[in-house]
Automatic annotation (TrEMBL):
This is FtsX-like permease family protein. The lineage of its organism: Bacteria, Pseudomonadati, Bacteroidota, Sphingobacteriia, Sphingobacteriales. The keyword Transmembrane applies. The chain crosses the membrane at residues 26-46, 292-313, 334-361, 381-403. It comes from Mucilaginibacter ginsenosidivorans. It holds the Pfam family FtsX. Keywords: Cell membrane, Membrane, Transmembrane, Transmembrane helix. Residues 25-253 form the MacB-like periplasmic core domain.
Length: 415
């Protein structure tokens, strides 16, 4: 009952302070509002980037390793001339890995043929990204089909003229019907559409299957040299369940050195890339952004804290006579202390609520302007409220303590 009474009176005093001294109170709350807005805004922006980038990384496969010519992670002293001389992954490497790997659940050899024009009767789709892959592509990549099916083993082995197409290509070429079973012209050859990728939109890396065309590698071999470096050949190895990407990478390094007959002491002439390399780099970047957000927001919260403390000292001075009357009627020191401390917390919570409201309005504006899912989770909201309460306690404890130690006689006699 005492806590409820204190809370009710403190809310009333806080409201009266806001009502009677609107400009002074609002200016003091501005620091807390800006601080909470900055901290929670940065954390939400980082969470949004992390969620969307992680979604893109997850598409690459959790425990998949990419055997490529170039490494994914570079630096200021990136020796590009050394990597330029490396050979691209060959079909021989792929065949040997299929035979000898003990950790692989699936292995795929893939190339990207680049932007091409796809035709169906009088309709055309510009800028299609054609990818030629082996049978295990569906096991090393994560994707969904809106209709149709994936390649059969016979399709892949014989190089059947079949294809899977992206949602945008299907919409452009077949605006009024299903593309399944229809023949489209790809790289000067007619192929039958057997599947359509589900619509997914571009991720933050700019990747999407909406404009993709997937054909069997053995079909593309009859048209182009699938081992040419211009198509950036890649071997993707997905590890068996229970194995980490490090387990797979360790075996692949030994196998590739053996396949390419690299002598002990000689440097690898291939790169083994993992999705976790990107995740680790992102974690470092996001850690820096989080720290920057706390530093910038911390200065605003510091200013806001001084503002709240100033309000509380003024409030104590203005209500000294009332404090004296309360103490003369039997009010304990802790009652006075809690009264002013709760008032400081209420004022800070008000600033925090305004800051969170601005963050929420910002997320709505971003979602309305850009097709991106903004993350504002309950954890950040709780963090914002907890920070506001902490600032209120720190800012109000000294004024509240000084009020609780006032002599009742001297307080009543004050003007």
């Amino acid at each position: 009952m005492i806590i409820l009474k204190l809370s009710r009176e403190s809310f009333r005093f806080a409201f009266d302070a806001l009502r009677q001294n609107k400009l002074r109170t609002l200016l003091s709350l501005l620091g807390v509002t800006i601080g909470i807005f900055t901290v929670i805004g940065v954390l939400s922006a980082v969470d949004t980037l992390r969620a969307n980038l992680q979604k893109s990384v997850n598409k690459l496969g959790g425990n998949s390793v990419y055997v490529q010519k170039w490494p994914w992670i570079g630096g200021d002293d990136f020796p590009w001339w050394k990597y330029l001389q490396r050979p691209d992954p060959k079909l021989r490497d792929f065949d040997q890995l299929q035979r000898r790997s003990q950790t692989a659940a699936a292995i795929s050899y893939e190339i990207g043929i680049g932007d091409r024009t796809i035709k169906y009767q009088d309709h055309t789709a510009e800028g299609a990204q054609i990818n030629a892959v082996t049978q295990d592509h569906d096991k090393v990549w994560n994707f969904d089909l809106s209709e149709g099916r994936y390649f059969t083993e016979i399709d892949s082995r014989t190089g059947a003229p079949v294809a899977l197409i992206g949602y945008d290509i299907a919409t452009n070429l077949f605006p009024s019907g299903s593309p399944i079973g229809k023949q489209i012209k790809v790289m000067g050859r007619y192929v039958t559409v057997i599947g359509v990728f589900a619509k997914e939109g571009k991720d933050l890396f700019g990747n999407s299957d909406d404009n993709a065309v997937l054909v069997p590698l053995n079909f593309a071999r009859d048209v182009i040299d699938v081992q040419a470096n211009q198509y950036q050949p890649t071997i993707i190895v997905k590890g068996k369940p229970g194995l980490t990407d490090l387990d797979v990478e360790s075996e692949l390094e030994g196998l590739m050195r053996s396949i390419r007959r690299i002598q002990p002491g000689q440097e690898d002439n291939f790169s083994l890339n993992r999705a976790t390399l990107i995740s680790n780099q992102l974690d470092q970047i996001f850690g820096v952004l989080n720290t920057a957000g706390w530093i910038i927001g911390g200065f605003s919260l510091l200013v806001g804290g001084f503002g709240i403390a100033n309000i509380m000292f003024v409030s104590v001075k203005e209500r000294t006579n009332i404090i004296g009357i309360q103490k003369s009627l039997g009010a304990k020191n802790y009652f006075i202390l809690l009264q002013f401390l709760i008032e400081a917390i209420v004022l800070c919570l008000l600033g925090g609520v305004i800051g969170l409201g601005l963050v929420y309005l910002g997320t709505m504006a971003v979602q309305a302007a850009v097709d991106i899912k903004v993350v504002l989770d309950i954890g950040n909201i709780i963090l914002g409220m907890s920070t506001s309460i902490g600032i209120g306690i720190i800012s109000g404890i000294i004024p509240a303590y000084s009020a609780s130690r006032l002599d009742p006689v001297e307080a009543i006699r004050s003007n």
